[in-house]
Design a protein that fits this description.
By secondary structure, the protein is an alpha/beta fold. Helices cover 43% and strands 17% of the residues. A seven-stranded mixed sheet has the order 3-2-1-4-5-7-6, sandwiched between helices. It starts with a helix and ends in an 11-residue tail after the last strand.
């Protein structure tokens, strides 16, 4: 009877094999075809049906982050982080900003506040982070309070589509993979520049496309559908031009995609161990399904980066001032 019920259905790929396939770059659909001829009793033991990947969160005010997804993110990326780049990376990335306890910094794309707390702890800088997700802001505030940094690593929720601007001046600005979901990037850059003090520094890491031709590719369209928010990536040259148009002098403009891919690979290398821990929880089945959705989410991004169609770009710029640039010796 089980054999009849399974007839015509795609074979289920066991969790450990799916994670291994992701890690080694194989297509799970191909693996399904290869194991489709297994004995009926094996098919009857298959895991609960996997939940389909979430669609892009395009509806107004829809928060794509829920408690389970936040928990999985921290299992993979580390406590207080919801994407690539742990403490060492954040410190290295920000070394050219010459941060100090006397400085204030604006951050957009603050996530759970992990990067902000790292920089506060390391350099003593005062940071206000802005984040679209209210879930991430609420949980990030709790983490900052637990660390005794609620005043120095503040988090605020903002709506990128209906945002009037920042209400104070800052010595530094950081945008970590935050502009690619904003359609009017020039407007946001202008708002950041407006509140950056003369001589202030602006560090950005951003997803960009390698050429306009990428927009017509099926792989790109699949990536767009699978993102949490609808992406609007542009060419790196376009970003640089926007910075210049807003009176910012670009000092560094470089591709750091392979470093980023390496961080993704290292973080997800232990996903099977995470799955084993999750399986012992009462909500283990649901959490493992969430883990698999996140694995698929990062697989799509990783494939785009490895293909070269999508790149992770780093830009460092300073706001023009009457005095000598702090970066004049670069």
């Amino acid at each position: 009877m089980a054999a009849k019920q399974q007839k015509g259905k795609a074979a289920s790929v066991p969790l450990k094999l799916r994670l291994k396939a992701w890690w080694e770059g194989y297509d799970t659909e191909d693996i399904k075809k290869r194991i489709g001829s297994r004995q009926p009793q094996e098919a009857a033991k298959e895991e609960p049906k996997e939940v389909a990947p979430t669609k892009a969160a395009t509806a107004e005010n829809l928060d794509p982050w829920d408690n389970a997804t936040v928990d999985i993110a921290q299992y993979i990326w580390g406590k207080g982080f919801c994407g690539p780049g742990g403490p060492e990376y954040i410190v290295s990335l920000s070394k050219l900003l010459a941060l100090s306890p006397e400085m204030s910094m604006l951050q957009i794309g603050a996530g759970l506040g992990g990067p902000a707390r790292v920089l506060v702890d390391r350099f003593g800088v005062w940071i206000t982070g802005f984040e679209e997700s209210q879930t991430l802001v609420d949980k990030g505030r709790k983490l900052s309070k637990m660390a005794g940094l609620e005043k120095k690593a503040q988090l605020e929720q903002y709506d990128t589509e209906n945002f009037d601007g920042f209400d104070r001046k800052y010595d530094r600005a950081l945008s970590k993979e935050a502009l690619y979901t904003i359609e009017d990037k020039n407007d946001m850059i202008a708002k950041i520049e407006d509140k950056l003090k003369p001589g202030g520094l602006f560090l950005m890491t951003e997803y960009v496309i390698s050429s306009d031709a990428v927009l017509g590719k099926d792989r790109y369209k699949e990536w767009v559908v699978g993102e949490r928010h609808h992406p609007y990536p542009v060419l790196s040259d376009d970003l640089v031009e926007m910075m210049k148009r807003n009176r910012l002098q670009v000092r560094v403009s470089e591709d750091i995609s392979m470093q980023y891919v390496d961080m993704i690979n290292k973080a997800w290398a232990g996903a099977d161990e995470v799955a084993a821990k999750l399986a012992k929880r009462e909500d283990g089945t649901m959490m493992i399904q969430t883990l698999m959705r996140e694995a698929e989410f990062w697989t799509r991004r990783k494939k785009m980066l490895e293909s070269g169609d999508l790149k992770l770009w780093r830009i460092v710029a300073n706001k023009k001032s009457g005095g000598p640039s702090m970066m004049s010796d670069w």
